[in-house]
Structure formats: structure tokens, C-alpha cells
Amino acid sequence: MITTNKFQALLGKAVSYFILLSCLAILMIYLVQRFGGDYAEQKIKEQLERSGLAPFVHYENIHLDPFTLTPSLENVIVGDQSAPWLRFARISLNNYLINYPNLSVDFWIQESPINSLSRDTGRLMRAAGIDTLLGKGSFSSNVDGESVTSQFKLDIKDLGKLTVASHINLLDQAIDMADLRADILASLALGQPEALAIIYGDTIELNSLNVQYQDTGLFTHLFPHSTMSQDSQNSHLTGLKFASQAFGLAPADSSEADHIAKTVLTFLNNPNQLSLSMSPSPAISLKN
Fold first, then answer.
1. Residues 6+ apart with CB under 8 A from 128
2. How far apart are alpha carbons 71 and 103 in whole angstroms?
């Protein structure tokens, strides 16, 4: 009888401790979610302000996963709220509170009929041959001293899959990664990537750049299969060589430009997968 009473008393204490610990765990999760979410939202707002995109980015709420410390912006609208450029179902900054200055972002483009988006986006969709926009992607950027490796992935339904990977060196240690990423985001969003060369031309050098594209409908729509004459192929090759020079990839009369032109032309003749890479030796500054 005494043994039974002791067992019941110990069991009662164990249950009480379990309940107490469960309550404390729930309280800790709530505090992390509440105050961590507030902190994450403050940092995100600061980034939007620094990039100048705050007036164009609207979101319904920010949810913080208390276990991974991943804040997610829900139902994001970019542009005018009635006719936005893009709609995102979610944008997640993975482990944002513990990974900085490294960055890992996943995003999902909300399924959007052409008439729900802006005229500019609608015009691009019509040119691409789609009437509904749906996709997903990711962006990662890792800092190791002066070295920064980044990768961007984008998968748009019925258009294609794009992967861009880069490796750059920061020649000025005073460069703030938050400012650099904000400037990159702003320049791309505003359609002015050349602004990066003006701002960071002498302080960033490019070690390598790799671009991969797998077509799932875009180029098939834009360039229906047809046999090119030899004169037409030569004309396209010349144009692509000068395009390589215009984009700063290689001089038009170089073997690198010739390789790029032939690779792109082969892809246009049979749209499937395109891979381009450059690894200048020595590394070149953005200004060049």
C-alpha cells in the first residue's frame, strides 16, 4: 500500500512537471514567434526602405516559424495593388535570424490570370504565349571573407527553368552586404542592371558566371522551328557575337564570343537546354 502511494505521488509529480514544462515550451514558442516576428518584420521593412522598394511592395502579414526562425511574407503584391506587376503566395527568408550575412530565400509566384496583373506584365505574358502566370524560385548568397557565391533559380510554368550562379570578390571591405543586395534588388526591379557597374564598378570583380536555361515553351513559342539558310545563320552568328560584346561577355572578334554565338544559335535551332559560362582569368571588375 505504501509502495503504491509512493508510485502515485511520483507519477503525480511527473505529470505536473510535464504539464509545467509543456506550458513553458508553449510560452517560449509564443515569445519567439511574437518578438522574433516583430524583429524580422522591422529588418525586412528596413531593407525595403534602403532599396527604395517600400512603396511598391505590399504584404498581408509576416509569419515566423519558431523552430527554424524563418520569417515568411504572405500574399505579397509588387506594384500597384489593383494591377500589380507580380503576386507572390509566399516569400520565405530561410533561417534569416541566424544565417546573416548569408541569405537563403524561397518564393512562390501566385497563380495569376493575365487580366489580374499590370499592362506591362500582361504584354510580356502575351509575347511569351501564356495567359496564366505560375512559378517558383529561390535565391542564395553566401559570404566567406571577401568572396561571395550566389545562385538564383526560377521555374515558370510553360516557359522555362533558369539558373544563374556567380562568384564575385569584394575589393572594398567597407561594402555592406545588406546595401549591396538592396541595390541589386532595386536595379533589377527597376530594369536598370547597368546601375550596378556605376555604383560598384571598381569595388567588385567577377570570378565566374554560369547560366543554364531549360526551355519548357518560351523559345518554342518565340522561335517556331524552321530551317535557316546559310546566309541567315551567318547573319545570326555575327549579331550574337556583337551581343556578347554589348553584354560585356567577350569581345566580338574573340574565340569566346564565337563559342557563345554558336552555342546560342544551336539552342535556337533546337530549343531544349542552354548552358553558358565564363571564368575570366584574371577576374574582371564590373566596370570592365
1. 159, 218, 221, 222
2. 12
| 269, 261 Cβ separation under 8 angstroms | no
Q: In degrees rounded to 5, what are phi and psi of residue 209?
A: -145, 125
Q: How far apart are CA 274 and CA 278, in angstroms?
A: 14
Measure the CA angle with vertex 251, ends 267 and 223; round to 5°: 20
117-132 pLDDT tens trace? 999 999 999 999 999 9
pTM, two decimals, is 0.80
